Amino acid sequence: MVHVAESYGGGVASAIGDYCRNYPEAKHVLIYAARSDAPINDSLLSDFAEVVEMGSGHISRIARIRRIIQRYPEATIHAHSSFGGAYARLAIRKSVRHPIVYTPHCYGFERRDVSAVHRGAYWVAEWLLAFNTTTFAACSKREQALSQWPLASSKTVLLTNVPAVDIQPAPAPPSGSTKLKVVGAGRLGAQKDPGYFLECIEFLRGNGYSVDPLWIGGGDPEIEAMLHAADIPTTGWLPREETLKRLGEMDVYIHSALWEGFPIAVLEAALVGVAIVVRDIPAFAGVDMPLRIVEPDELLAFWSELYSVEFRRTVNEAVRHALKECNDQQQGKTLDRVYAFSS
């Protein structure tokens, strides 16, 4: 199994690690490029039989990926995210010996920080590359629907993300708390839209609610400074285990992202027992998330109830039920199907 990931960090790195854990019968090789805004912990590279950096430059990366794949004559290629997906499918043609699985981890044409012209160009590029794709392994129902490309013969499979293992839900905080610990998480950039999280916090403060906010993650220093100026501390990048520990210390997680494939952070917040509020974006289509908002002022409809431990527990249990298929056993079974379909 050869994984190709240009954007190796954050949720993509976690997802690939989960695939390795839940498909242990294969030897996993990683061809990757590190991101300067998402440092890689060495533990994220320990599960691979071989790890190769793809270097710099689009043409040289494609050539390097081709050379490495040729060293594995019977390997399935699993390409990840936009650039990794493009590099792999330009480097080699799908075949019986080299089937190509592609997981978009959110299509580029879903972005909302670029023009409609750019989004259209991304869509055309993905459609053309679909003709050199054996199987699309989508991480959400919406992504699976988007992967039904006109005229292409590729198969599509729903390969849900999963949370980390061996993490127990945090004990509920004592009742009667007058200040809620509210957390956002992810890379400080346009996709996770920390500005929306800031708007939520400022709206709550402006309406008399006492909150203790935190952003788990790092990235753009200008966005970090903006949050700090609003008295919202940030942690910088943390190992996955430390991220889960900090999540488990919070009361409410607000998922502020403007676009997504399907966020692992939501799965992990559910796992550690936190009540979850999500921005109502297309990634959650077909998922029964109980607390959705479009604008921050919609928080008023239920925020006072979140001061109740029982209400937060009820919300968390409802989210867990909605995400019950996102588990290691189910992902392992799906990986069996994905790689069988591609062979």
Tag the structure with descriptive keywords:
Rossmann fold, alpha/beta, five-stranded parallel sheet, 16% strand, 36% helix, 2 domains, single chain, 11 helices, 343 residues, seven-stranded parallel sheet
Write the layout of secondary structure elements.
Elements: E1 2-8, H1 10-22, E2 29-34, E3 50-53, H2 58-70, E4 77-80, H3 81-91, E5 100-103, H4 116-130, E6 135-138, H5 141-146, E7 155-158, E8 180-185, H6 194-206, E9 211-216, H7 221-229, H8 240-248, E10 252-255, H9 264-271, E11 275-279, E12 292-293, H10 309-322, H11 328-341
Parallel strand pairs: 1-2, 1-4, 2-3, 4-5, 5-6, 6-7, 8-9, 8-10, 10-11, 11-12
Helix pairs in contact: 2-3
What does this structure look like?
With 343 residues, this protein is α/β, with parallel strands linked by helices. The protein folds into 2 domains: 2-162 and 327-341, 3-Layer(aba) Sandwich (Rossmann fold); 180-322, Glycogen Phosphorylase B (Rossmann fold, 3-Layer(aba) Sandwich), CATH 3.40.50. It contains 11 helices and 12 strands. The chain has helices at 10-22, 58-70, 81-91, 116-130, 141-146, 194-206, 221-229, 240-248, 264-271, 309-322, 328-341; strands spanning 2-8, 29-34, 50-53, 77-80, 100-103, 135-138, 155-158, 180-185, 211-216, 252-255, 275-279, 292-293. The strands form 2 sheets. It has a 7-stranded parallel sheet, sandwiched between helices. Strand 8 (180-185), helix 6 (194-206) and strand 9 form a beta-alpha-beta unit. Helix 2 (58-70) crosses helix 3 (81-91). It is globular and about 60 Å long. The chain starts with a strand and ends with a helix. The model has no long low-confidence stretch (mean pLDDT 92).
